[in-house]
Predict the 3D structure of the following.
Amino acid sequence: MSLIIALHLGEGIIMASDSRTTFCTTITQEDGTIVQNNGVHYSDSSYKTFLTPKGVGISTCGQASINNKPIAGYIESFINEHKDDDIEAIKDAIIPYFKTLSPTIDTHFIIGGYINSEKTYEQKLYRVLTATDKIETIDTNIQGAIWDGEIDVLSRILITMCTKEGRVLPDYPIPFNHFTIQDAIDFAKYAIQTTIDTMKFQQRGKTVGGPVDILIIKPDNAFWIARKELHK
């Protein structure tokens, strides 16, 4: 799995993701019992957030392999084939493209960007679910955030909690409506890094990890705040 997050502000869109891909093996025993070994191998160099030439951001989580190859290469091929498309064309094309490669694919995408219409820029953000062919439009009129993947750690931090006796603990909501671009960058890094650090001590598969990539998309340009690089 993974953790991807997108914050939508009046100033722009911030998209971030971790870098870990976890591999599993499935073994069928002599009695027909199927045993799945999770986390038998992992990589901390996977790309999960991408930028098209037209300034559309694409983040992915869920199924990370198609035909025994990492999904990143297929996303890059998709971008090359749709390099002149705006965000509306990208979000409509992505499910058919990946369903052709793998009819049962179960991958989630967050897609963000702007449409230039009559000299004005309209912010767009979508969540795309390939397994159910669902495209969810995110309301960006009010500043906020969405996340997908391994969200349980972050959810426990942000939701209202009660004691065993039923007493509601103090609730301190996140004021996304007051966020600046820098606040959003800090929150995206915090959300993913906190999940990584928490998983380190939990008895569970370490499915979120590695460097955090952060992309900024503004109406007139897009750029990386953090992006891992190849090295020797």
